[in-house]
Amino acid sequence: MSTPEPEAVTVTLVRGDITRQSVDVIVNAANSSLLGGGGVDGAVHRRGGPEILAACRELRASRYGKGLPTGRAVATTAGRLDARWVVHTVGPVWSRGEDRSELLASCYRESLREAAELGARTVAFPAISTGIYGWPMDDGARIAVRTVLAEAVAPVEEVRFVLFDARAYAVFEEVLSAHG
Ligand code: ADP
Fold this sequence. Notes:
This protein is of the alpha/beta class.
């Protein structure tokens, strides 16, 4: 019996706006309403156009009547974005008193699973939960990198973290280099 080769996913870092990426999947740091918000979510709907919001409304009217639970992921059209799909995931709000790390890891894992099921080869992630939801960047980066390296499977070949500012980029760079 032959053992399958471990999947070699390439993790890359880019500084910039995730809505400007050309990839198969753009992951949106959504909120559970799926009906838009600030940060990445606002940018995705602004640049992606009304088709994405229409698809989200349909999800609210069908599978996700109560909203998308934290840690889960769901795909829609990417509208006018230069991508095939947007995968919406809901990060946990940072809490000092409660360890919600598993929910943050789940966002990356579920988004990757959705992307692989769709047949995506390239996936762009923002630093989920590190904006309005208040997660410390260094911890958020550690969870992101660790989970992606452990969970990315074929046909996903490249996972690109798109970091909005120089500090986020530097933190991800340090975490990634620590993983060799
Ligand atoms: P959350 O509500 O999950 O914290 P945010 O969208 O507020 O999500 O922020 C997540 C991270 O994405 C933050 O580090 C923020 O600086 C960054 N960010 C905001 N807008 C963009 C964008 N257009 N492209 C990439 N990253 C972005």
